[in-house]
Design brief:
This protein is mainly α and 79 residues long. The protein has one domain. Helices cover 70% and strands 0% of the residues. The radius of gyration is 24 Å and the shape is elongated.
């Protein structure tokens, strides 16, 4: 992997020490530990959103009042 982009973040000294200790226990450099954790969380969020989207697709379609008015107007205009 050829990393070229940077991500800077501010942490309290306590949070940084906590993350550094966890990285050490995992046997990883701090940057690798943070990158891995952030990517894991990103994957979790993407999976949750995909699941939510697919669940919405499975629900029956129910047009709201604004859409019903627009459809009626379209019928009146012959669209």
């Amino acid at each position: 992997m050829s990393a070229t982009a940077r991500l800077d973040l501010r942490l309290s000294a306590r949070d940084r020490e906590r993350i550094a200790r966890a990285a050490s226990l995992a046997g990883l450099p701090l940057a690798a530990f943070v990158r891995t954790a952030a990517l894991r969380e990103a994957d979790r969020v993407f999976a949750a959103e995909s699941k939510r989207f697919l669940a919405m697709l499975g629900k029956p379609f129910a047009p709201n009042a604004a859409l019903r008015r627009a459809l009626k107007k379209g019928d009146e205009l012959g669209i």
